Fold this protein.
Amino acid sequence: MTLPLSAPSAPPAAGIDGAPPAPEARRGWRRAAGWGALALALAAAGAGLWYGWQLRRAAALAPAYATAPLRRGDVTLSVTANGTLQPTRAVNIGSELSGTVARVLVDINDRVRRGQLLAELDVAKLNDQIVRSRAALAGAGAVQAQAQATLAEAGATLARLEQVARLSGGQVPARAELDAARAAQARAAASVRSAAAGQLGAQATLATDSTNLARAAIRAPIDGVVLSRSVDPGNAVAASLQAVTLFTLAEDLHRLRLLVNVDEADVGAVREGQAASFSVSAYAERSYPASIRRVSYGSTISENVVSYVAELAVDNADLSLRPGMSATAVIRAVQHTQVLLVPNSALRFTPASAARGAPAGQGGIVASLLPRLPARAPRQAGLGALGPGRHPLWVLDGAVPRQLSVTLGISDGRYTEVSGAGLREGLAVITDQRAVAR
């Protein structure tokens, strides 16, 4: 078997002087090349690790937005006002007479009928006044009868003298005697008229005393319930000093009225016939229905706050409500159905990048490494830059915030009605920014 011959090896390279290099020089050159290649490999690996770290850092510090879908629904503009419950009709009953209370026949919460006796004053003096008035009337009648008799006598005397004058041909009686008789008749007629007037006066006095006697018995003017009583037997009533209230009656507690003070900023949205609801402290978990009956044009001012009184009709069939209770009413002023709604937090949101004056979503790793010029204070553009009556709304377009210009409608405190171009149901509306790159 013949073995193949190997190729002759290349002659060693000649040195500078033409002599072949030494074995140690060849081994040093090879070691330097290996270390250089290793250094390059390590540098490339370090650059890759640094680049990956920068990517992870950028991803970790990228803005994360909280969103809510734009949805359709109903929204109601409500007006809140405080007030007190009052009876539909309340009557304060007093006394026109001064005197001592003899009897009190009713108490608080008693139901009374119209004309029912509630209390009575001592009538002893009133009875005496009636006796005196009747006596005066009788005396006036006697005076009138006497005056009429005198008139009849004067008339007879004048008639006799005139007859004598006709029979005597005017010789007797003397003219002066006839004139005196005529004057006496006229005086007698005047006395009759005066006596008649005196009798009428005596009759009026008797009628007044009779009325006072009737008013000493205090009676209910309406059907209702006794809300308050401020008198007891033996109390003295001095009606001449002030208006005295002895009882307060409510006509019907099954229907009440709620008087609330509506702020001047909200009164423009309140109308008659609007639905409302209210609650009282006694039944904090219960909501009572009501409706607007009227809104006062007259204002009230308290501590420089202008308000207007609105009256609400309240059904109190179960008598759970009582007059005087404080109530908080919520008036449903305006209601829109099936409109686009956004949370109110979305209307207050502005991306941090936009607040710093840079467009949202721009920049990257390289931009973060490059030196930046000193930042200028951002110029805050007013809402007028969007157009009259327009408001900015930020939505998430992919991963980048985008600003829309919308028109605001009514709000219920949590959601606000919006309208405008580019809005559709289900659109992601930004409500908050959880992390912002620094």
User: Anything to note?
Assistant: Residues 1-17, 358-384 have pLDDT under 50 and may be disordered. Residues 124-167 form the longest helix (44 residues). The radius of gyration is 55 Å. Residues 25-54 form one domain.
